[in-house]
Each structure stands twice: as C-alpha cells, then as structure tokens.
Amino acid sequence: MSRLHVVSGKGGTGKTTVAAALALALAEEGKKTLLVEVEGRQGIAQLFETEALPYEERRIAVSRQGGDVYALAIDAEQALLDYLQMFYRLGGAGRALRKIGAIDFATTIAPGVRDVLLTGKACEAVRRRNKDGTAAYDAVVMDAPPTGRIARFLGVNAEVAGLAKVGPIHKQAQAVMRVLQSSWTAVHLVTLLEEMPVQETVDGVAELRAAGLPVGAVIVNMVRPALLGEAALAGAEADKPAIARALSQAGLGGASRGAKAERLVGPLLEQAREHAARLALERTERAEIAALGLPTHELELRAEGVDLAGLYTLAAELRKQWNA
C-alpha cells in the first residue's frame, strides 16, 4: 500500500489543491498525514488559510473523519544543514557555513543536490517510526514540481548515487531511491480535459515508467458539467421558432419580447455549438487518459474557486472515489 503520494501536474491544473485535498482524504480517524511542499510557494498555507509554513512539521487541519493533517515547507538550505549535522556532526560549524553563504552556494550551484535534499526529507518522514515502532505518519503527500520535470526531480538520487560511489551521500541517495522505486510510493498526475495538459500527462507517465518510478492515478481536475448533449443540440437547430417562443414565454423582451427572443436564438445556438464542440474534445482527451491504463478520478470545477470549505468538499469527493 502506498505511503508516499507524489502529486505532480502541468502548471495551472491545480496540483497543489489536489495534493491538499488528497492529504485530507487520506487522514482517516486516528491517522496522521503529512503534506509536504518543496517549491517554496507557500501554496499550502494559502489553501488552509494559515500563516506561512516554517521549516517544521505543524498540524494545520483535522479531517472530517477525525484524522490530523500536518504540513511542512521544506527549505533546501535548512535541509542541507540537517544533512550535515546528521552525517558529519558539524553543529555550530554548519551555522557558520550558512552565514558566509556556503549553504546557499551549494544548493544553487548543484541543483541535483537540492533535489536530493528535498526528496530525502519527504522519504525520511515516510521511514520515521515512533518509539512503539509504529509509523510516524500513515501517509505523506508531496506537492511536487510540474510534470515536465517530475521524472528528473525524483530520479536525481540515482544520478547522485552513481556519482558518489561511497560515503554518506551515496548511502542517502540509495536509501531515497529504495523508497521512491518501491510499492510505498505512487506518483499521481493532475490534468485537465484539455489537449496540452493531457499530452504532458501522457509524456510524464512514459518518462516515469522509463525511470522505474511507480505511477499511481490520474486525477482530472476542474471538470465542467455537460449541460447539453448532441441530440438536444440537433433538436434545437431543427426547431428555432419553438426556442423563440420558449424564450418569450420566459419573460424576455418586454412589450416586444417575441422579436427580442428571436434575436437571442442565434447567439444561444452558437454557444450551444461551442459547448458541444468542447464535449467532443473532452471525449477525445478522456480516451487518451483511459489508454494509459491507470486509475482515474475526476473532480468537478468549482466556479466560485476553492476556499477552505471547498477544499474539504473536494477531499470528500476524492475520498469517495479513492475507496471505490
């Protein structure tokens, strides 16, 4: 059973929102989930309407099932200090390195090292145990980088392990890859029913599989309801006078509402044709997603946006589909 849920998606698909909803959905009664942010955007704090997340695990929500959701914004510099303390016991020397800018230099000049630190912190939370031997967290959800670089982000540990043949860095990278390539991990991709996000999802799945990384589910976000089918559109085209009469009976046009209703028929039918074309496109994109052979979940578009209450609603819907 997966314990590390990595959530990625093309920019604009709402991957951070989906990651937050998934963390809530997985927080069953008496369980704990950790929601991890690695891009430094503080998107999680905004969703949960709380202050900016520090580099520490903090409880930010309780699910409707009574489970706890903790969150952590991973800072690469602080993670490197933790790493240096863990393996080299630098203590105050590590803080001195930060003051002179050495830590920032290391994480900037070697982006691969930065990604190792970010993934390593999440994997450490997955492996961590309480004093009684139980898992510290029942699930860890990572709001990961976009689909276009997710395979490289997760696979960089293998590269680092190959470059550093021995020593703590080699062991750390190997330990992280053991988690990422195991059944403990699932990489979920968020998409929209649009051509570019779906194509990026298809490409992302291929890259993840080629890298030996376990792909989980595809989550189709912001799905708009189907308001009109093709049969209804065809009927409308054939009976424009009836539409005009219905609009007039609905009270449009005042004294000359019959004439005004007739003028509205053309624009309304044009909108209906556009709607039908969108539905046809969405059917094509759904077929592309289905061909991946992965579990697929859909979350409806919330026209008013996603506030905290909306986030809980999305979590409830995702939980229902996840357990189906």
UniProtKB/TrEMBL annotation:
Residues 5-178 form the ArsA/GET3 Anion-transporting ATPase-like domain. GO terms for molecular function: ATP binding; ATP hydrolysis activity. PANTHER family: ARSENICAL PUMP-DRIVING ATPASE ARSENITE-TRANSLOCATING ATPASE, ATPASE RV3679-RELATED. This is ArsA family ATPase. It comes from Streptomyces coryli.
